[in-house]
Amino acid sequence: MEQASRVMFAAAAALLVALAMALIGYAAYQLVKALMNANQTLASGDFGYIVIDAVGYVVIAIAILDVTKHIFDEEVRDWRNRDREFLPRASFHKFISIISIAVFLEGLVLVFKVSQDDIRLLLYPVLLLFVAVAMMIGLAVSQRLAGRHCDGDGGR
Fold first, then answer.
1. Which residue from 34, 46, 84, 89 has the highest number of Cβ atoms inside 10 Å of its Cβ?
2. Cα torsion for 102, 24, 53, 106, to the nearest 10°?
3. Measured distance CA(16)–CA(62) in Å, rounded
4. Which pTM value belongs to this model?
5. Which residue stretches of 37-122 are H helix?
């Protein structure tokens, strides 16, 4: 049963890697397409948005790869001889950091797009940026509490 579970997790990890690579490939495709039509892209003023979107896709792909690494390390490999308590917490903090960066990027892109199109809709990207800030505060609190738990000296 344990062997079947490992095979299933390995297949899921392989699928996640393929999807992350597809996102990176799509980001590269968007950039190449924008560069091939440089005159039109620069004239429309969309080049910056295309680049930031591509960065967002790559950041999301990194988050997916990080989750995949965690799944592979925890469920496929044999980690019986390692300290399992530290790995999930460190992976969680890294994952939330990457997702927060992706949310910040998306909020930033939306602020620029909306401010040029319809300023009345600026509330939504600003709320997205507040969510990203809340995620970072939550991460900081989580790291602080985890530090208190692990230090043995009360976090001082």
1. 34
2. -10
3. 11
4. 0.67
5. 38-44, 47-71, 86-117
d(CA 156, CA 148): 8
Residues 125 and 13: their CA atoms lie apart, in Å, by: 33
Task: In whole angstroms, give the CA distance from residue 156 to residue 145.
Answer: 11
Q: What is the dihedral of CA 124, 103, 25, 92, to 10 degrees?
A: -150
Nearest to 103 by CA among 70, 123, 127: 127
Q: Cα separation of 36 and 66, whole Å?
A: 32
CB 24 within 8 A of CB 55: no
pLDDT digits (tens, 9 = 90+) for 58-67: 888 888 888 8
The total number of residues written for the chain in this structure: 156
What is the C-alpha separation between 64 and 152, in angstroms, rounded? 33
Closest by Cα among 116, 33, 102 to 65: 102
Q: How many helices (H) and strands (E) does the chain have?
A: 5, 0
14-60 pLDDT, tens digit each:
999 999 999 999 999 999 999 898 888 787 877 878 888 888 888 88
Q: Please state, in angstroms and rounded to a whole number, the distance separating the CA atoms of residues 2 and 67.
A: 21
